[in-house]
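Fig. S4 source data, part A: sequence.
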Amino acid sequence: MKQIFLSGLMTLCLCACQQEPPKPSQNLPSPQSFEKSYVDTHNGYSEAVVITSGNLKTIYISGQIGEGVDLETQMRDALSKMERLLKGAGANMNDVIKMNTYIVDYGPQSLEVFRGVRKELLGDSEMPASTLVGVEALALPEWLIEIEAVAVIEIQ
């Protein structure tokens, strides 16, 4: 009998000591919404997608290719296209936080061209995070380079 009483007493204590589950607060902020806009949609993709959330705008630039007979010319043209897309979204190259570059038939001479043009156009301080990948081919055989980027700006 004593064991049953103690067991019942322990169960009562456990139940009485448990806290009530927290009630949802009426003052919690609702999840922040965002807006998406698509820039120059064609052939199954967009040249850029712009996400606006609160006072931040994030611009995702699809891989830009350039025209020309060599890597340097194509790189300059691709970066020029990227600049136009950024400008259309209210940003510039200084707002780029991440850049991925794909170069066909990559070799040491490609790195020299890549670094030279990038330094000339973007400077050499406060650089975005960057990935450079040598690839066998891009979507079309005449393309030697493709550059994609992500930029973030604060909006008023």
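Fig. S4 source data, part B ends here. The first helix runs from residue 2 to 17.
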